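note to self: dont lose this again. the chain is below, predicted strucutre after it. 444 aa total, dont forget to put it in the shared folder this time
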Amino acid sequence: MAATTLLSLAIAARALSQPEVGVVVVLTTLAVFLGFGDFGLGTLLMTRLPAVHARGDAEGSRTLVGTTFSTLLGTGALFLVAGAAIAYALPWPTLLGAEELEHATLRAAVLIVFICGSLSIPASIGARILASMQSGYVVHLWNAASGMCVLVLVWAFSLADAPSWLYVLAIAGTPTVLAVLQTTWVFWRRFPHLRPSTLAVSLGTALALVRSGGLFAIMAICTVISYNIDSLVVSSIMGAADAAVFALAVRMFVLVGGTLSLASQQMWPALVDAIARGHIDWARSRYRRTLVISTSLNAVACLVLVLLGQWLSEIWVGEALKPPMSLLIVLGIYTVVSTTVTQSVYLLAAVEKVKAIAICGVLMTVVNVALSIELTRHIGLVGPILGSLGALVFVLGVPVIVLTRREFSRLQVAGDSVEATPEPARTLATGARLSPGDAPGSDD
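---
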């Protein structure tokens, strides 16, 4: 999907003015990350469902999914009301640095973003279930189909000389529609035994999810702010035209970092499944292997983008939107570091050690916002990424890596204790009884 999104943006860049391109890119980036505003429930489902599935608890799985889906529907509705109010209350032309554009058009585009973001919250449960059940490749197929649909729509709008809000609708709305179709397919075809029903919804489970999801919610909110603040900072301080250059350069590196993060995200439910079964050595080896492979691939791909980025940008979106080399270098470093830190976050989330991540995430967001604003005012386009990089490394990265090492040591001690227990008493804390033939994902 990332590749087709880049092609779609290339078409938009040639059909719209530079300020319009900046608005489209910033708002569609915002739409992507608004989907994380589910108060952590989708993330919590990816942590809980593999463990329940590993125990063979079919009824527990259905209740968990049904309660999560009902709660997400309510969350999406609240988000829609709040988003509509924000769309009309805030001075978006000023925030986007696009005072010269028609204000009604800008407001319509912002409203579309919040509508799509609200709908994507409950619609995302299909992808969460597929990832939890170790069917992540199916999610990628759906994403590819979504990307092709976006490309066709943007091309059609460019031929029709459509206004900029329709480009926002195509890029932000199409993935939402596909997510709704994907969730419907998951419940009625792929995993019908998980289909929500009134009987599957437990008020106690809902309250427990909301309480447990609170820390995941903090993580999600910090993610939304951290990934969106840079483009908005550039828009408000330097204007929509510079924001277009900045945001398009970021999208190039998202093609690399985002693709690898999505691919390695499958390790999250796999780690949960393995740890629930007591396969600590397997979890440790796969985590390390994933970390080395993803970081190596990321570093090579980012080096290529740094060396060829200006040439590729000129071909992609034209001379006027070509980023400076300094921005490419900082983006390359940030992408490699963030992907490495993400792997450690996945592990800590898999064992629900979320409190420390949430605290670090809040501190990182505060530092990120402050640094990004100040550095943008003083050194321009590279300022926000340098601010994000500093906050990521020193506030989140170092503590998370230390916690990861400590958590593996704790799990190893716990695993050794289980192995030393007499056979009749060998059960995990989750209630799953070990058997010699157990292996991660073997009971699909």
